[in-house]
Amino acid sequence: MEAMIANHIHDAFCGSYCLLSPCTSFVNPWPMGLVFGFGEMAGGFILCHNRLEDKHEQA
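Request: output the structure for the sequence above.
Response:
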């Protein structure tokens, strides 16, 4: 659960940086798309990892 919270905090900070950074354009979709994609991949990995741990604990 802590990993999911850390992932959401990381996404919020990275997304805020991409929106507020003077070196990126607001209309450029790539920075936010990369942050979103990385966050979704990390979240999916964490969920799969937690399910595998739960299966091993139940057995």
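Residues 30-58 form the longest helix (29 residues).
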